[in-house]
Design brief:
This protein is of the alpha/beta class. The protein is 48% helix and 10% strand.
């Protein structure tokens, strides 16, 4: 990736690290209603779902949370998973009543089924222009390390990744089946040697892990069959040592070790996520550029502190607020409308206004000309009427004389008749 608009003029092998904030700031996220959840407000967002989307066992889970954690301050997703999983394990391992309580396991199962449904309602068939811009800017050999369960970046790769994205191998392990569902449209030309990698160390809600735990298939996003494809956010990270997550973490170590630019978007390096911190501290080195995107200055500072030992002395460090702001420094993706040039639009509007004014002036002139012609016709008609009135008056004054002459002619005729007779 090259970020010339941010002063990073050299193309550098890049890893983009995505946290929940990258999804929260997506261009397609609704401004009202349920938002893509983050760890801190998962249960707040879940309870905003339409009633038609909530099941009886979901309401039972919410009632359990209010009873266990209080009515006003729901726990984070990590706290709930960590504490309730520990309580469940305690009841199983130290059972003294002869009957193990199943309610904790039931609530954990409900929560697992609730996670994909919350993301489905929040994101649905969401296509994010900002994610697509990032995909467009990535080069072959670059990688994305996403700690998110959602499929926003998967969708962006399918939409604009072209030949740089091969889902059958792009997740860091060989996909068993279903990769055609997430492949870009076919394009002519040879395949690339080093496709983009999308590494998801906590799993993905478009994977289905077989019952034997040995094969992963790609399925429709947020389907019920994806519930077992994610690593719950708990302090206990032993699950990542199992396949396929173990392969993803190894691939993450390899790409981070060769990265020369790190772009961290919406990921705050939480203090409890020691394994992710270890991943970044152990393998990132010789960074020429670090871009940190987060509205929280303290979160940005934590990322910079964690990566400080990996920065070269001349490294560029850029801090930005949101994924939208970061995307504004990238070229538009192919699915976006052409960018609007405000100055060009203003000039176009000015030209249109001038044209309208000229047309108005012409219309006014024509109206005045027509008005002048009408006045002339009115004057001519008035003159004609006046002449006719004069003629009528003249004719009227002659009428008496005509009558007198007529009477004289009649009298002469009478005399002639008497003489002749």
């Amino acid at each position: 990736m090259r970020l010339s608009s941010l002063g990073i003029n050299k193309e550098l092998p890049t890893v983009a690290v995505l946290g929940a904030g990258a999804s929260r700031g997506a261009s397609c996220v609704r401004k009202v209603g349920i938002a893509p959840p983050v760890d801190a407000d998962f249960f707040v967002q879940a309870q905003r779902m339409p009633s038609s989307e909530l099941l009886k066992r979901d309401h039972e889970l919410f009632a359990f949370i209010r009873a266990e954690f209080g009515p006003s301050d729901p726990p984070t997703l990590e706290v709930f998973f960590t504490q309730i999983a520990a309580v469940d394990r305690f009841h199983h391992e130290f059972n003294i009543k002869g009957r193990v309580s199943a309610r904790f396991s039931a609530h954990l199962g409900t929560l697992r089924s609730l996670i994909p449904r919350v993301f489905r309602v929040a994101l649905g068939d969401c296509d994010c222009f900002w994610h697509e811009r990032i995909v467009t800017a990535l080069r072959t050999g670059d990688a994305v390390l996403s700690f998110n369960y959602d499929t926003l970046f998967d969708r962006a790769l399918r939409s604009v990744g072209g030949k740089r994205w091969l889902p059958e191998v792009g997740y860091g392990f060989d996909m068993a089946s279903g990769s055609d569902l997430w492949s870009p449209p076919p394009r002519p030309g040879p395949a690339v040697k080093r496709p983009i990698l999308l590494l998801k160390p906590h799993g993905s809600l478009n994977w289905h892990i077989g019952e034997d735990g040995q094969g992963v298939s790609m399925v429709d996003e947020y389907a019920p069959t994806t519930t077992g494809s994610i690593v719950p956010p708990t302090l206990d990270k032993t699950a990542v040592g199992q396949w396929p997550w173990s392969e993803v973490w190894r691939a993450a170590r390899r790409v981070l070790g060769s990265a020369r630019m790190l772009v961290v978007i919406g990921y705050s390096v939480p203090a409890t996520d020691q394994l992710s911190q270890a991943l970044l501290r152990a393998d990132v080195n010789k960074l020429s550029a670090l871009v940190v995107v987060n509205p929280d200055p303290e979160a940005r500072r934590r990322v910079i502190d964690v990566m400080s030992s990996a920065l070269e002395s001349t490294a560029s460090v850029v801090e930005l607020q949101t994924i939208e702001e970061f995307a504004s420094y990238l070229p538009p993706g192919p699915n976006e409308s052409p960018p609007v040039d405000p100055l060009a639009e203003l000039a176009k509007l000015h030209r249109q206004m001038r044209l309208n004014l000229r047309e108005l002036a012409q219309a006014q002139g024509q109206l005045e000309e027509s008005h002048g012609s009408l006045e002339e016709e009115q004057r001519e008609l008035k003159s004609t009427v006046e002449e006719m009135e004069t003629t009528v008056e003249d004719l009227s004054s002659c009428a008496d004389e005509v009558q007198r002459l007529t009477d004289e002619v009649r009298e002469i005729d009478a005399r002639i008749d008497s003489i002749l007779g």
